[in-house]
Each structure stands twice: as C-alpha cells, then as structure tokens.
Amino acid sequence: MNSGFDAVAAAQALLAVHRGAARFPGLVPPPPDPDAAYAVQRHVIQGLGKAGAWKMALLAGRDRHAAALPGRMVWPAGVRLPRLPSDACIEVETALILGADLPAGVSALTAMDAIAEVRLAFELIAPRLADRRTASPLELMADGFASAGIVLGDPLPGWRDGMRDPLGITLWLDDRQVTAPEVAASLAEAVDFLAWLSSHAAAQGLPLGRGDVIITGARIGPLPLGDARTARATVDGAGVFARLT
C-alpha cells in the first residue's frame, strides 16, 4: 500500500456521508491499490459498528474481491428504508446465512455445512460518491463497492438442490412488473466464494461468524429505482419486499 495514501482520512470522508453529509466527487488521492481500498473498508466498518455482512464483487469487472458491510445495513423485509438518492439502484440477490462460525482456510465442504439457509434478498446500490459512473474501481471498492445495504426476504425452498439454473424470479417496482434478464448463479459458485472469503475476512480482522449474511452477486440488476416507492420480488413461494420511501 502506498504510504502517501491516508486510509483513515478517506474513511472519515465516507463516514461523514453515512452520517448525513452531502456526497462528494471522489477520494483525493484515490486508493492506489486493493490493499489501500481494503484499509479504507476496515476503517469505515470500525466507524459504523460490527461487520455483519459481506458482498462479492469483481474489481473492474475482472478480479474477485469483497466488501465488508456493517450489520446495521442489513434490514428485514418490509422495513421503511433510510432515504436513498435519486440515482439509487436495486439488485435481486440470494443471500447465504451462516449457521456457524467459519475460520480461515476452510474447505468447500466445511463452507457448505456452515450455510443455515439461503434467502431471497435485495441489495441497494448508492455510493457515498456523487457519481458511481465516474468513480474509479478502487474508489468504489473502498466505498464498499457502492452498497447501501441488504434487505432480507424469505428462505428459498430447495436451495440445497444447487440453484444451477435461473430461479425464475419476478420483480415489481410499485405495481409495475419489471422485465429484466436473470443471471444463473449456482450454489457451488457461492460456496467457492464463501471458502475464499473465510480467509479474506480473517485477514481483515473480521472473521466470519454465525448469523453473517453473504451476497454473492446480482441475479437481476442493477436497475434504477427512479421514483418507485416499493420493490417486491418473488420466486417459488419465497418473497422479499422493501419500502423505499
């Protein structure tokens, strides 16, 4: 990590927005490398409270990385969410819920055994930076890959069967059904990420624990919310609902 980059100062700027300050154009200077971006993430988590969730993301669309998210940014379905900016987006995800602590370096089999359930979920996308289209990939990584939180829905029946195909999720914004492609993401891919994450999280000083929530990539979205007041998604009797205003 470049010694000229001040991860604490960058984290303080992001924390100010979390606490109600206006969004700002970008981190100056930006993080020079992933280690610097992860250092910012750690300081943000320290400022917001205990980590309770993680998300998988691809840096610049290529390299697998992750972001720690505070437990206070995980909400039950139906709760009225904090106000979101006008350019906020939404993704439909599946969330792994851990039923056991996971130490570093676990096998895929151990990671699989630690999953208590898989839930339908929303991820909200709204960075602390003014325009995520102009922010650099490392700035977005430092800012938790632009996550604004997770809404947890119902457990998915039959998730242990592998989730190898598109699930057939239906999404509504208000009363409008949204036509959008769904990405298939198998349980095996999620478990592979979870095993990797066990070591990464421990290296960040944030080891995975029972009750942690892990989202492993959008199945639908990101889609702009616009002026929608509610979002709802369903599949196979499971659902997730969010009040957006």
From TrEMBL:
GO molecular function: 2-oxopent-4-enoate hydratase activity
Gene3D superfamilies: Fumarylacetoacetase-like, C-terminal domain (3.90.850.10)
Stored InterPro entries: Fumarylacetoacetase-like_C, Fumarylacetoacetase_C_sf, Hydratase-Decarb/MhpD_sf
Lyase listed as a keyword: yes
Domain Fumarylacetoacetase-like C-terminal: 78-221
Cross-referenced Pfam families: FAA_hydrolase
Keywords assigned: Lyase
A GO term from the CC aspect: cytoplasm
Name of the protein this chain belongs to: Hydratase
Organism field: Paracoccus kondratievae
